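User: Quick sanity check before I run a bigger batch. Here is a single chain. Can you write out its predicted 3D structure?
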Amino acid sequence: MQLISKEIQKEHKIYLIGDIHKGVIAHNEDGFNHVISLIKNDKNAYCVIMGDLIEGRPLNHKFFDLDIADPNMLLPEYQYEAFQRSIEPIKDKIITILEGNHDRSLSRTYGNKVRTICDKLAVPYGTFSSVISLKTIGKPSKMMYKIYVAHGAGAIRSSAGDIIRRRGYMLEAIKRKLKNKSADCIGMFMGHTHKLMIAKPMQRLHIMSDEKKLEQMYSKRPSRSRFVPEDDRWYGNTGSFMKANLLGATTYAEAAMYDPVEMGYLVIHGKDDDITDVEKVVI
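Assistant: Done. Predicted structure follows.
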């Protein structure tokens, strides 16, 4: 866990990009390079990198396959070097870089390459999960809101027959995984599953009274509260840059018979000390 503070513009976008998987031809290089360009050219844009920077499967791993390995970067150290070069143009806009499960498994052999990249680029190292305090630029700096980000673990899936129920169960599963991790965050996000999904805050209708009359009132989300009710938060699964299917080759996602998933990322839109929207971008 890491606690990170970052001063940013009052009106801003925070790109949540992860599960990049450099090192295989299934990596969506065009999509990744495009989002890096978007972040670079927007003065109000920042990003959090959600882990699994590279594929990095060793030769003896059950999912290693020369058919989908990138011949220009077979070794994990080459994959990390390529990843570092790709994000260097936006290093001043990166709030933190998280460590994913692919990165953690490689650290036993290669050391903590995520931390090394963070040190080289002067970016805060986020460990596996972080609570990020977002503040206004200037003196005195003012707290706007907090978000929780984690690489994530496990699976998000449902076998319900109807697509509406299936979608609802998966959104509930994302919320259930995240809601108890940090109670003072108005946004909670994870990667890992390659799903691209958003669960929006849900207002509740209450009855109030002033000794003379009854009144209906909707709940209002407190952006800087010590405790944010779980229904008042944004939740999200941040997608990936990994193709599940390739012509002329078999990916491990295809061999495992995983359903198609949307590649892409999430963008937090912030204004007036609050999250005004979370956008899903499909690539």
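The CA atoms of residues 26 and 247 lie 10 Å apart.

User: Great, the batch can go ahead then.
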